[in-house]
């Protein structure tokens, strides 16, 4: 089995594809069973040395799918955790679809949720095939063979590892519907297995895109437009071509590409370009002017959810009102965008952290005029993404393909975006305005609630526009509707604004702003009504909001909640559901001068079955740090000519170690199907900090980041 | 010609003296454990040892360090790096992993100087290393764990 290369292996085992039909929400919505890959051999490779390698269909960008999906397989194989390995699946959406999307891709915190049954079935099938192979070899009934910690054994005294039967097992028919364990029998799911990628990520050997060097490869940097929507009017490359190491300069749709024998020459060559830009169709507004336009656009907001008496606010004893403003945010993964392509004799091979293979592969094929099967994408580890590599328009794939095409010859090319390219390059979390109104009756009870949201659509104009319904993009306002609280009559509306500034999902997407607007405004309303933030929320929660209630009660318990202030410190709470996972957080805040200093965060999470508890804890810690970074410091702003004012980490400030709070995580026990954890740790943090800050200083927070308080 | 000793090997390099050490290590020597993150000494992903002290290779032109001794994560040896890497794996510190070579280098330099650092000393030594996954809680823990290992 190990003698075959993976490509050959997949080809020889393609005949084993099963037609398992799994009940996924997506499949139900489409009214048809999904086209399912379920051959265990597309996902599992057993080596003669007993190693079990799980082929991971999701991009590993830090959130742990290598470990998570391998755990699911190992559990049903009854493998020992020490024999497990993981490697990335290539772009191939006949085998490696995300069952939540119907296409190959990673996002929406879906990796564990959509793989939970599929990977366990693959593991169970592989186990059954190994047992049958052993039964035949040993001449005993399969039912008498037991498997434990990666060892097959028979009471007659026979014992062997998986490797001994790997080749024979591969020849057997794949069981159609292997039984799965009852959760009470789980050994590895919910256990303390370590991540599979920690050692290689601690000694410099983990291989990322930038580490790929092909024979004769040129490194390319691109001069992108200085304003969004600008195009090249003319350029002079004489200076660039004089830089030692620069091989050529080409115009591509994305800008002017400089090809060089090494990275430094490419960067130096780009600096020496003289380019005149046509900005006639560019965004020339400042971000503050754009926010003012958003406020005007609210008059045209479309209703996305409405219930109850429309006159409720008019009849209220008191109406509270507040606007909340959110800036553009860059994802700023530590590894900026990069990709490697090699074009040779009518075939293209790529290496990079590809997050949406089902979009990128056809994008490359179409750009280069190649058939799909002439394009191979090797998916590598990504040094973070937080949504940045999940491109509905495949712009990185298009750029690297244009670079190869414009070279006019076969060859290998590596594209690098510098940090300045990354921060100035768009694809931001949309700048957003929320306008909230709530009506209280004379007893302080909430009788009406309005939330009008204005921002750009992420999906419109991309391959994902098909997911929009009736012109509505739920990712723009998700979390503002479907509240767990009884707030009387509700009216939620959305105004779509447009701009050439490209926008993208940023770790927890719409919840990055909706959770803040809802949980901060609610906190202000509760304070006005004289209610405790925790008790007040619990009283408002509807009977259907049981899991929200569970995390809120749990977090109050572990934080020892005693109200908004204690001994010179303030405490703030917020709760949010995103991507099916419920998270409540309580923060402890001190006055750090003009800005809050967050000293501790308590976090309760309900994500159904906890597959890898320590990965869940790590994602809550990381989500909290990522959210705190943005809440305190981050904003991408445009000046009066539409130019991005930030360029690197000196003016796009990120959280550093001395600002990281202590984090205490409680994972609620659950038998519900697992949901994701990559994003849901983010939404409650910023509102909890704002609520604590208001308690500490009396200052309401209506605009992020907090650093705005300094100006 | 620039003369350097890299991971114990003496070499002469025919490169533009303006070239940052980072790109010489990566593009010329294929020592890819050292990462690019910002190019302006703001993130620490490119941290190497220069004559035994941590240095941001992205802002260090090779022309300025002629005859220096450079150690990258690939060439690190000794009890401190071993303890740090063991602690990193035991605590599952890395998430995406991109910044971690730099974190490990800075943590090792810290433990060589201060065998049992306080939280404040860790903040001071590690403040120049950004981690976008915010693995800071575990970095702090792993440094304390490594210090205990070294104590024996």
TrEMBL record, chain A:
Keywords: Signal. It comes from the Bacteria. Residues 203-281 form the Aldehyde oxidase/xanthine dehydrogenase a/b hammerhead domain. Coiled coil: none annotated. InterPro entries: Ald_Oxase/Xan_DH_a/b, AldOxase/xan_DH_MoCoBD1, AldOxase/xan_DH_MoCoBD2, AldOxase/xan_DH_Mopterin-bd_sf, N-heterocyclic_Hydroxylase, OxRdtase_Mopterin-bd_su_IorB, TAT_signal. PROSITE patterns: TAT (PS51318). Residues 1-29 form the signal peptide. The keyword Glycosyltransferase does not apply. This is Isoquinoline 1-oxidoreductase beta subunit.
Automatic annotation (TrEMBL), chain B:
The keyword Iron applies. Gene3D superfamilies: 3.10.20.30, [2Fe-2S]-binding domain (1.10.150.120). The keyword Oxidoreductase applies. Keywords: 2Fe-2S, Iron, Iron-sulfur, Metal-binding, Oxidoreductase. Pfam families: Fer2, Fer2_2. Coiled coil: none annotated. Residues 1-76 form the 2Fe-2S ferredoxin-type domain. CDD domains: fer2. Signal peptide: none annotated. PROSITE patterns: 2FE2S_FER_1, 2FE2S_FER_2. It comes from the Bacteria. This is Isoquinoline 1-oxidoreductase alpha subunit.
């Amino acid at each position: 089995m190990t003698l075959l290369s993976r490509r050959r292996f997949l080809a020889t085992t393609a005949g084993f594809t099963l037609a398992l039909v799994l009940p996924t929400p997506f499949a139900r919505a489409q009214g048809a069973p999904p086209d399912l890959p379920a051959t265990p051999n597309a996902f599992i490779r057993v080596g003669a040395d007993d190693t079990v390698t799980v082929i991971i269909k999701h991009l590993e960008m830090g959130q742990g799918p290598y470990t998570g999906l391998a755990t699911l397989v190992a559990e049903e194989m009854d493998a020992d955790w020490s024999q497990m390995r993981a490697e990335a699946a290539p772009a191939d959406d006949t085998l490696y679809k995300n069952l939540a999307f119907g296409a190959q891709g990673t996002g929406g915190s879906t990796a564990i949720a959509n793989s939970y049954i599929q990977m366990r079935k693959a593991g169970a099938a592989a186990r059954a095939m190994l047992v049958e192979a052993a039964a035949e070899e040993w001449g005993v009934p399969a039912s008498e063979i037991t498997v434990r910690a990666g060892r097959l054994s028979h009471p007659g005294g026979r014992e062997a590892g998986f490797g001994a039967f790997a080749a024979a097992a591969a020849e057997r028919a794949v069981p159609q519907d292997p039984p799965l364990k009852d959760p009470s029998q789980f050994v590895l799911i919910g256990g303390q297995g370590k991540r599979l990628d920690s050692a290689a990520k601690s000694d410099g050997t983990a291989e990322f895109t930038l580490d790929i060097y092909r024979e004769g490869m040129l490194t390319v940097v691109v001069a992108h437009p200085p304003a969004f929507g600008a195009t090249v009017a003319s350029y002079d490359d004489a200076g660039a071509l004089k830089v030692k190491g620069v091989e050529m300069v080409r115009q591509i749709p994305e800008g002017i590409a400089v090809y060089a024998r090494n990275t430094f020459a490419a960067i130096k060559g780009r600096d020496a370009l003289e380019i005149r830009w046509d900005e006639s169709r560019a965004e020339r507004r400042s971000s503050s002017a754009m926010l003012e336009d958003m406020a005007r656009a609210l008059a045209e907001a479309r209703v996305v959810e409405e219930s109850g008496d429309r006159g409720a606010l008019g009849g209220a004893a008191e109406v509270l009102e507040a606007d909340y403003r959110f800036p553009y945010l860059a994802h700023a993964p530590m590894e900026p965008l990069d990709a490697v392509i090699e074009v040779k004799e009518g075939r293209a091979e790529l290496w990079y952290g590809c997050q949406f293979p089902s979009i990128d592969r056809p994008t490359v094929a179409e750009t280069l005029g190649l058939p799909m099967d002439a394009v191979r994408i090797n998916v590598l580890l990504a040094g973070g993404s937080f949504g940045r590599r999940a491109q509905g328009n495949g712009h990185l794939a298009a750029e690297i393909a244009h670079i190869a095409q414009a070279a006019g010859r076969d060859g290998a090319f590596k594209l690098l975006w510098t940090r300045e390219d990354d921060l100035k390059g768009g694809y931001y979390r949309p700048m957003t305005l929320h306008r909230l109104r709530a009506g209280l009756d004379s007893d302080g009870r909430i009788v009406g609630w309005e939330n009008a949201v204005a921002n750009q659509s992420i999906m419109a104009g991309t391959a994902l526009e098909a997911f929009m319904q009736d012109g509505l993009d739920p990712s723009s306002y998700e979390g503002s509707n479907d509240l767990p609280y009884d707030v009387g009559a509700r009216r939620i509306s959305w105004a779509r604004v447009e701009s050439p500034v490209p926008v993208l999902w940023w770790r927890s997407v719409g919840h990055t702003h909706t959770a803040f607007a809802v949980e901060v405004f609610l906190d202000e309303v509760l304070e006005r009504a004289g209610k405790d933030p925790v008790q007040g929320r619990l009283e408002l929660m509807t009977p259907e909001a049981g899991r929200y209630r569970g995390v809120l009660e749990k977090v109050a318990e572990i934080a020892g909640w005693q109200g908004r202030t204690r001994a010179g410190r303030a405490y703030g709470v917020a709760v949010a559901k995103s991507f099916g996972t419920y998270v409540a957080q309580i923060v402890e805040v001190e006055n750090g001068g003009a800005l809050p200093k967050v000293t501790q965060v308590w976090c309760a999470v309900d994500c159904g079955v906890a597959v890898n508890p320590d990965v869940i804890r790590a994602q809550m810690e990381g989500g909290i740090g990522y959210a705190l970074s943005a809440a305190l410091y981050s904003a991408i702003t445009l000046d009066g000519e539409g130019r991005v004012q930030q360029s690197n980490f000196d003016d796009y400030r990120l959280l550093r170690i001395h600002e990281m709070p202590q984090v205490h995580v409680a994972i609620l026990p659950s038998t519900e199907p697992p949901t994701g954890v990559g994003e849901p740790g983010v939404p409650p943090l910023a509102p909890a900090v704002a609520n604590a800050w208001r308690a500490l200083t009396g200052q309401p927070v209506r605009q992020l980041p907090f650093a705005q308080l300094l100006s | 010609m620039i003369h350097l000793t890299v991971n114990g090997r003496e070499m002469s390099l025919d490169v533009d003296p303006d070239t940052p050490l980072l790109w010489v290590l990566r593009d010329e020597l294929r020592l890819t454990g050292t990462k690019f993150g910002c190019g302006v000494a703001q993130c620490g992903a490119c941290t190497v040892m220069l004559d035994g002290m941590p240095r941001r290779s992205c802002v260090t032109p090779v022309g300025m360090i002629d005859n220096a001794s450079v150690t990258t994560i690939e060439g690190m040896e000794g009890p401190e790096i071993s303890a740090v890497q063991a602690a990193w794996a035991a605590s599952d510190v890395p998430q995406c992993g991109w910044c971690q070579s730099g974190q490990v280098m800075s943590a090792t330099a810290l433990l060589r100087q201060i065998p049992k650092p306080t939280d404040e000393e860790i903040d001071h030594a590690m403040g120049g290393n950004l981690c976008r996954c915010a693995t800071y809680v575990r970095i702090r823990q792993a440094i304390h764990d490594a210090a205990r290992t070294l104590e024996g």
